[in-house]
């Protein structure tokens, strides 16, 4: 049996007295109310009544007003109003009622007496719905762009009563009741009403406020019960506990200047250098507010323009790194409250650092307290089990063809950008959404209406999400992790491509091909690299098909793939040198940069979410600390020169911003190319992936530049290199080379990248 509730655990419903008052004399004419018919009574007590407000509360009838209250375990219930005090008759099973000789129902409260306490509270069932018709219309249309304002738990004052409105979408439910710490997890007295054909259930509960824990007790179509966390919860308990928490934001933002200028330049024409972070393990044990004291200054010092946070939405299993989400509207409680997370974002913005967040609309886990068969039938997942089951991760795929599900996700994207001032959404696993046959064998999938393999519902969802975010949130960028050659990932949604589809509408796309090919190249011994030269040049064949990010992400340094420096062949010096040369090549290559934490100081071990980066490698007491600090100093220098040199980012997405000087020097393991800014000012980047110094190496250069000077050399001693530099300015000679009538001779350090600009 459920424990007997005394008084709800919130300040608005504190007991008015600790002992039972003397029995009041009922007013003249108080009669017993007509009892509920057996069907209504049974449905009400079982939690399967769609309209409990029609039975409970105050209702005018012939002869007066009927008051009916459901309070299990109560000894008595008394109606209190101006000039009125009437104790209701017991009906049994926790029901109390009376017919009072009144013309209309007054504003009243209830005095509920339990064995050891008395509670006075407003009656939730005398109040009108706290959700408006416009909200219901937009929800029904699947077009409520601020869905979080309508669904979930919302503290408010309604009809002069302070409390919380609870709403949930559960169209297949036979009934819904609210359970929480305010009713000792017994929802018998807290049934919600169904609001028409919307599938939304609602109850405004007086006295419940911030910090209250709650869930929904849902009666499935077969009559069984399931207790679920709120899909729209904006705060949760700390895992492994999983109740939803009533919350309201009190954070005062101080990033007005950041937001005012965020949209000044299109992202693809601006510098974008991203530091990817797994917040729980960057400095294990730190809260959001403690991270705010360290992360912004660290990232700012290294010169990154943005951080990318691996998923922060609530997830039950830490080992999923946040990629199996159960609380799509709640920052994980592991590190603090939603306002604490806002404080971290605010702090990053005030340091001049943008915030990109990994967002996971591709799937969700099967936990029986979360979204899976939420109201007894497939709801958020596809109704076809073959379409619903994600073949790789044991999770469920969303039903993108259902307008309410699409609305849930589109509004969620907007929510993070508007409520938490997120500057970008990196959308995870886009390829798994786009293809019906993704990771499925022949016979395990069905083609679309045109006989193709494209998931047309997912295409429409991604287009709607991108269009909505870009319309509502100026300066925000969406980024696709898409690993195939899908046409038009970063093309506008209204521009139809050769395949007959409009673009998906993303701002940027991860260049998984560049990542795979370039890492494959540098992992070969230098003597073998000449046979793989095209792996470093092939990316330029398709470089302008999309707007690209070059990602060295967490996926490349975990699960046996080894840390970046450990992928490199040779001894410790050669591995670090190749690591530095690779970063120099990456920062100069067309596209934006992303580097996962720990790789900025050449951590040799794979990343572990349990203990994070090995910061001790840079401790003064460690004998090789200088080696690791040197690599970090190089990253700082790369970002500084990058940010100050528009040629490296201004024309990332157009062919006019790039030209090979020599892309065919396979025998030398050398790559030389020019980058140009919008005014035609060049930067010359040269990478030597052989372990030998190449003296008097001739490269053709534009005749318009009278003198070149070296602005970055990954072999500099301060970075841990051998200090083979081009210290003096280089003047072009009238010697033709590589299609130019002038050329320079420079020294190429071993396993190094050098950048030169006009003096």
From TrEMBL:
Q: Does the keyword Glycosyltransferase apply?
A: yes
Which residues act catalytically here?
Answer: 428, 481
Q: In which pathway does it act?
A: Glycan biosynthesis; glycogen biosynthesis
Chain positions covered by the region annotation Disordered: 1-36
Q: Which GO terms describe its molecular function?
A: 1,4-alpha-glucan branching enzyme activity
Q: Which residues form the Glycosyl hydrolase family 13 catalytic domain?
A: 276-636
E.C. no: 2.4.1.18
Q: Locations of Low complexity compositional bias?
A: 14-23
Transmembrane domains' residue ranges: none
User: Entry's PANTHER family?
Assistant: 1,4-ALPHA-GLUCAN-BRANCHING ENZYME (PTHR43651:SF3)
Question: Record's family?
Answer: Belongs to the glycosyl hydrolase 13 family. GlgB subfamily.
Any idea what job this protein has? Catalyzes the formation of the alpha-1,6-glucosidic linkages in glycogen by scission of a 1,4-alpha-linked oligosaccharide from growing alpha-1,4-glucan chains and the subsequent attachment of the oligosaccharide to the alpha-1,6 position.
Task: Cite the record's note on assembly.
Answer: Monomer.
UniProt protein name: 1,4-alpha-glucan branching enzyme GlgB
In which organism is this protein found? Streptomyces formicae
């Amino acid at each position: 049996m459920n424990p007997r509730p005394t008084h709800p655990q919130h300040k608005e419903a504190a007991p008015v007295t600790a002992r039972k008052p003397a029995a009041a004399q009922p007013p003249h004419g108080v009669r017993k109310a007509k009892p509920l018919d057996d069907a209504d009574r049974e449905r009400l007590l079982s939690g399967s009544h769609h309209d409990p407000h029609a039975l409970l509360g105050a209702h005018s009838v012939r002869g007066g007003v009927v008051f009916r209250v459901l309070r299990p375990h109560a000894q008595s219930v008394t109606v209190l109003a101006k000039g009125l005090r009437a104790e209701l008759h017991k009906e049994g099973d926790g029901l109390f009622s009376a017919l009072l000789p009144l013309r209309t129902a007054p504003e009243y409260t209830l005095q509920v007496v339990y064995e050891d306490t008395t509670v006075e509270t407003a009656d939730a069932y005398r109040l009108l719905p706290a959700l408006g018709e416009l909200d219901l219309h937009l929800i029904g249309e699947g077009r409520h762009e601020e869905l979080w304002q309508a669904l979930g738990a919302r503290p408010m004052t309604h009809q002069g009563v302070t409390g919380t409105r609870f709403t949930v979408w559960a169209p297949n439910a036979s009934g819904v009741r609210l359970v929480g710490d305010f009713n000792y997890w017994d929802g018998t007295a807290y049934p919600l009403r169904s609001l028409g054909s919307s599938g939304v259930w609602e109850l405004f509960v007086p006295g419940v406020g911030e910090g209250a824990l709650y869930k929904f007790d849902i009666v499935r179509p077969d009559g069984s019960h399931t207790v679920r966390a709120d899909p729209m919860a904006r705060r949760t308990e700390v895992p492994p506990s999983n109740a939803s928490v009533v919350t309201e934001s009190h954070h005062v933002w101080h990033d007005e200047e950041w937001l005012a200028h965020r949209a000044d330049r299109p992202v693809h024409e601006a510098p974008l250098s991203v530091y990817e972070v797994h917040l729980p393990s960057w400095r294990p044990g730190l809260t959001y507010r403690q991270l705010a004291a360290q992360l912004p200054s660290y990232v700012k010092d290294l010169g990154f323009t943005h951080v990318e946070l691996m998923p922060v939405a609530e997830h039950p299993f830490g080992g999923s790194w946040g990629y199996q989400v159960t609380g799509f509207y709640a920052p994980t409680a592991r590190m603090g409250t939603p306002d604490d997370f806002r404080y971290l974002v605010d702090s990053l913005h005030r340091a001049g650092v943008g915030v990109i967040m990994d967002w996971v609309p591709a799937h969700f886990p099967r936990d029986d307290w979360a979204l899976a068969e939420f109201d007894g039938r497939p709801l958020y997942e596809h109704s076809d089990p073959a379409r619903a089951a994600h073949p790789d991760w044991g999770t469920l795929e969303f039903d993108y063809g259902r307008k309410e599900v699409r609305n849930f996700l589109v509004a969620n994207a907007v929510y993070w950008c508007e409520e938490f001032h997120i500057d970008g959404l990196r959308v995870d696993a886009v390829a798994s959404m786009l293809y019906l046959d993704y990771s499925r064998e022949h016979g395990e999938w069905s083609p679309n209406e045109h006989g193709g393999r494209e998931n047309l519902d997912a295409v429409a969802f991604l287009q709607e999400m991108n269009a909505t975010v870009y319309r509502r949130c100026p300066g925000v960028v969406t980024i696709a992790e898409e690993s195939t050659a899908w046409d038009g990932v970063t093309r506008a949604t209204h521009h139809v491509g050769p395949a007959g589809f409009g673009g998906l509408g993303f701002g940027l796309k991860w260049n998984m091909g560049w990542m795979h090919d370039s890492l494959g190249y540098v992992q070969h011994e230098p003597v073998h690299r000449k046979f793989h030269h095209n792996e470093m040049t092939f990316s330029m064949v398709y470089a302008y098909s999309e707007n690209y990010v070059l990602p060295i992400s967490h996926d490349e340094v975990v699960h046996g793939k080894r840390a970046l420096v450990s992928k490199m062949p040779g001894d410790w010096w050669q591995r670090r040198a190749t690591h530095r040369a690779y970063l120099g090549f990456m920062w100069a290559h067309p596209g934006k940069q992303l580097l996962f934490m720990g790789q900025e100081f050449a951590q040799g071990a794979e990343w572990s979410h349990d203990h994070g980066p090995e910061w001790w490698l840079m401790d003064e007491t460690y004998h090789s600390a200088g080696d690791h600090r040197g690599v970090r100093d190089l990253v700082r220098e790369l970002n500084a020169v990058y940010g100050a040199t528009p040629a490296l980012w201004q024309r990332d997405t157009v062919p006019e911003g790039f030209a090979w000087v020599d892309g065919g020097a396979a025998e030398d393991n050398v790559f030389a190319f020019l980058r140009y800014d919008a005014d035609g000012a060049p930067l010359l980047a040269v990478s030597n992936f052989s372990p030998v110094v190449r003296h008097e190496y001739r490269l053709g250069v534009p005749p318009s530049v009278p003198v070149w000077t070296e602005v970055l050399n990954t072999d500099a001693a301060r970075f841990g290199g051998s200090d083979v530099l081009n210290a003096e300015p280089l003047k072009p000679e009238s010697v033709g080379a590589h299609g130019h009538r002038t050329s320079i001779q420079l020294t190429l350090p071993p396993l190094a990248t050098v950048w030169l600009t006009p003096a």
